[in-house]
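Posting for a labmate who doesn't have an account.
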Amino acid sequence: MKIVAHGIDLVDCPRIEQMIARHGSHFLDRVFTAAEQEQAEKIKNKTERLAGRFAAKEAVLKMMGTGWRGKIAWTDIEIINNELGRPIVNLSGEVKKIAEKLGIEPISLSITHTANFVMASAVAIADAQ
């Protein structure tokens, strides 16, 4: 296995809080899967959790070198925590097709945050050929 790409993103938590206040469920449903929203509802710092998922999705697309284009949807990238709290990346739709074409599997993800900022780093791992 080898590292083939890296993506990083920084998000301002108050910006995400404003988007939720302004657009409510329309924003939430467009950007976050039901599982992401459910996990965020269970914790005290919901905005930080959602901002982390937003940053992680951006980092994944930067890592893939695609940006937001074509048929890519926000919900093609799902970030959920496993039972130990580690963020796991699940891909679907157009993003999954692109990752398969690039031979990326799996994606290693790290998210860190303060009350105001969230940073996510995504690393693409592929079989050495």
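Reply:
Got it, the structure tokens are right above this. The chain has a mean pLDDT of 93.
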